[in-house]
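Subject: Predicted fold for GNAT family N-acetyltransferase, 230 residues

User T.R. writes:
Posting the sequence so we have a shared reference for the thread.
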Amino acid sequence: MENINNIIVRIANDGDTGYAQEIVDEMADSAKVRGTGIAKRSPEYIVNKMLEGKAVIALSVEGHWAGFCYIEEWSHGKFVANSGLIVSPNFRKSGVAKRIKETTFALSRKKYPDAKIFGLTTGLAVMKINSDLGYEPVTYSELTDDDDFWAGCKSCVNYDILMSKERKNCMCTAMLFDPKDHYKPEETKEYFKEKSKIYERLMRLKQHKFLQAFRKKVNGKSFFLSLFNL
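User M.O. replies:
I've generated the structure tokens; pasting them so everyone works from the same file.
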């Protein structure tokens, strides 16, 4: 349990189910504001994650909901996603998102010590948090091939783009933590710091004219791969 600026970050339980509707409403509103997608979840789905002990919630000491994230298991436990990270507008820029991600990551490592942990994000801030934890940018081919996971993207406004690219790319950036083969968080953190401007430009290019700039081949690799030095 963490207390940061009067915000408590902890594993969610059955006493938190009353926040489920507020959480899914904010997920939907946030996606609309950003103009990008997020897999739509029902209050019942969020409640189940809480009851399973696979969710992390942030609350103010007064009991106001501040943030949330949950764990999803794919490919028979070979992959785990820390999904649905959302922070209430009243608590943004407080550092709570990072604490939620750290707590969810630690919970994932405890429950699924051998699983690869991955995420898809359109936000540079989330990329930075992931890098601090030891995630690395990867191609979509390194993520789960579980059809149920990709079916969750159907409610995303960019789903047609994803399918047109045969699930090989989309507006989101893929990031992965492999417990058997990963750099130290200090290394991925420093790498992100060095490449952050490139990542920022890459995201803008995707949003402006998706993938057209990445068709050019550079030394046998796509421009997208060369940017990430893969």
